[in-house]
Write a structure and sequence with these properties.
The protein is mainly alpha-helical. The protein has 14 helices and 2 strands.
């Protein structure tokens, strides 16, 4: 028998005992079957994305209007305003990882119910609050319902690995849509029903999330996880050197975002003399304009050999925009341009960093928990620090 290449694939024909290689080049050109979401998977993905969106919409709705509202309360100080802006982030950061672990132990659905119930309770407290201290308590309760990890885990339980990335993308789309809707709707809602009315709307959204969980998400049908699959220890993932820039980056990114919305509403109201009810027009124009910068950044990152350079460019653009708003915020066109440039960089980085993170590790559940932990911790700490800096200037 003649020697053959051991790396090739073989078949054996009847009455022919000589192994013959099949062309590996031909194998590579075979068309791959496209894997689509099944009907049950689409139902679960849609329901969980809607549940996620209801909570994120509730949190984002306060972002453009809470700072001005909190500043007008009788017990208001700049530091207290900062704490009110970031209180939900601290409790969410503290409980994000425990909620994920508890969902492994007690089940995804019970932890989602607990999270939505805490969010409902915090919304009711906020609607009835007459002091900034009670607002801080309300925001802390809202953040304590840190159900994001449980929702993501439940989504993974119901979807096959081949379509899981696509399913997770729907969650990302729901978050992005919630953010855009909130920027536009919040000033209008504040003018119509006030901040207390927004809190009541949040409570209603929490109830809608519970209804979706009860009637739209099946109680059975989770996929079995591989028996031999092991998860890396949390401390090991946290200390992985290639992941550190992503963790630091997302912390800084959301630190800056919440700090921006702690300052920009006051600039629009007091320096540019734009009525609060008209702020939505600014946010809508800025966000739409920002796509002129975001789309080229995304396309360039996909086409160049070293996308890190595009990431660096986006960071520089966002940093220059923030510097411009800090140094010159009395000229409307300059503020709007800088604001749009910041969002161009922010939108790109917000989409790019999770994609880069997913390529570096296979322990996505733990990394996702740490990712969200640093994001919400950044949202919490920036509120306190910016409030403190405002206090030092008064």
């Amino acid at each position: 028998m003649r020697a053959v290449d051991s790396s090739a694939c073989y078949y054996t024909q009847p009455n022919d005992y000589e192994a013959k290689p099949i062309s590996t080049e031909a194998q590579q050109t075979l068309p791959r079957a496209k894997v689509s979401l099944t009907a049950p998977e689409r139902r679960v993905v849609g329901a969980l994305a809607a549940i996620y969106a209801t909570r994120m919409l509730g949190l984002f709705l306060l972002l453009p209007v809470l700072a001005i509202y909190a500043a007008g309360m009788p017990d208001s100080t700049p530091v207290m305003v900062g704490i009110a802006m970031g209180a939900y982030g601290m409790t969410q950061a503290l409980l994000q990882i425990p909620f994920g672990r508890w969902s492994d132990r007690f089940g995804r659905r019970p932890l989602i119910v607990v999270g939505l119930s805490l969010f409902f309770a915090g919304s009711v407290v906020g609607a009835l609050s007459k002091s900034l201290l009670m607002i801080i308590l309300a925001r802390s309760l809202q953040g304590a319902g840190a159900m994001s990890a449980a929702v993501t885990a439940l989504l993974a339980d119901f979807t096959r690995e081949a379509v899981r990335t696509r399913a997770m993308a729907f969650i990302g789309i729901s978050i992005g849509a919630s953010f855009v809707i909130s920027l536009i709707a919040a000033p209008v809602l504040e003018a119509l029903i006030g901040v207390s009315g927004i809190f009541w709307l949040m409570a209603f959204l929490a109830v809608m999330g519970l209804v979706l969980l009860r009637f739209a998400v099946p109680r059975h049908g989770e996929l079995e996880q591989p028996a031999g699959m092991e998860r890396a220890p949390l401390q090991h993932v946290a200390l992985m050197a290639p992941l550190r820039p992503y963790f630091v980056g997302v912390f800084a990114l959301h630190f800056i975002l919440t700090a921006t919305f702690l300052s920009v509403p006051f600039v629009l109201l007091h320096r540019l003399k734009i009525a609060e009810a008209q702020h939505w027009k600014v946010y809508l124009g800025v966000f739409l304009t920002s796509f002129i910068g975001t789309v080229p950044l995304i396309l360039a990152a996909e086409r160049v050999a070293r996308p890190q350079r595009i990431v660096a460019l986006a960071i520089i653009v966002a940093a220059l925009a923030q510097a411009t708003m800090a140094l010159q915020h009395g000229i409307a066109w300059l503020v709007f341009t800088a604001f749009a440039l910041f969002f161009a960089g922010f939108n790109f980085l917000e989409a790019r960093m999770p994609a880069g993170l997913s390529r570096l590790t296979t322990v996505a559940d733990r990394v996702g928990a740490l990712w969200r932990h640093r994001r919400v911790l950044g949202q919490r700490l920036d509120g306190v620090n910016v409030g403190d800096s405002r206090d030092s200037r008064t």
